[in-house]
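Good morning C.,

I know you're traveling, so I'll keep this short. The sequence:
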Amino acid sequence: MAERSGKLARPNGKSLAWRRLSGREPTVVFLPGFGSDMTGEKATSLAAFCDTIGQAMLRFDYSGHGESDGRFEEGTIGQWTEDALAIIDALSTGPVVLVGSSMGGWIALLAALARPERVAGIVGIAAAPDFTEILMWQSMTFEERDRLMADGVLFAPNRYGPPTPITRALIEEGRTHLLLDRPIPLTCPVRLLHGQNDQDVPWELALRLSDRLESTDVQVILVKDGEHRLSRPADLALLHRTLAPLLGQDRG
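The C-alpha cells, ready to paste straight into the viewer:
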C-alpha cells in the first residue's frame, strides 16, 4: 500500500512534513535523531517492514529538519517534543508504538509521559535521553562553555557531515526535560537496542535508562560490533524482530 504524505500546519505558521501508511493498529511512529529526518535508512526500512505485515506507520520531520519548515538552530527538545505530539494527535488514533533513534529515543520517552494512555510500547535505537546535558554540556571545555554562553551558539564537529550548531537555548531548555535524575513513571514495554561500538552515545546509557524506567518489561539488547546508527542489514533485521512482538506479530 502506498504511503500518503502531507504537511501539518502548526499554530506558529510553520508546517511539519509527514508520511503515513494505513494498516492495523498499533501505529508505529518513527522519531528521528538530532539533525536526521524521515528519509533515513531506519525510517524507510521500518516503512517497508510495516507495509509487508499490514501495519499502520507514521513518520515525520521535526521543525527545522528535512522537509519541515523552520530553522534547525531555533529548535529545542521541548519544541521537537511538541512536534511529535502534534503529529501523533492529528494523524493517528488508538494505540501507538514509538520507535526513537538517538535523540528520538528521548523524544519518545517525553511523548509517552505526555500521552501514557496512547503508548503501547517504545523501542529505542541508541536512545539518548538527557544528551544535551551529559553528552554536550558536560563534555565541553570551560572555554567552549564560555563561548557558547557569550555567542549563543557553538559549532561542534560532526562525524557525519558539516559542524553542528549547538545553541545556548538547546542546552538551557533541555535542562527542563531531563529524565535520568529520577524514576521515569512509564509502565509500557520498552526495548533498548544499542551498539557497543557507538562513538556518539555510550552503550552504558541504555543500562542507566533501563534502571530508571518503572516498567518491569524492559529489555536491553546490545550489539557488540554495532555503531551508533545501527542501520546495517543485520541491525535493521534485529529492529524488525524486536518490534514485531510489540505489534502482536510473531515474524520478524
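Safe travels,
E.
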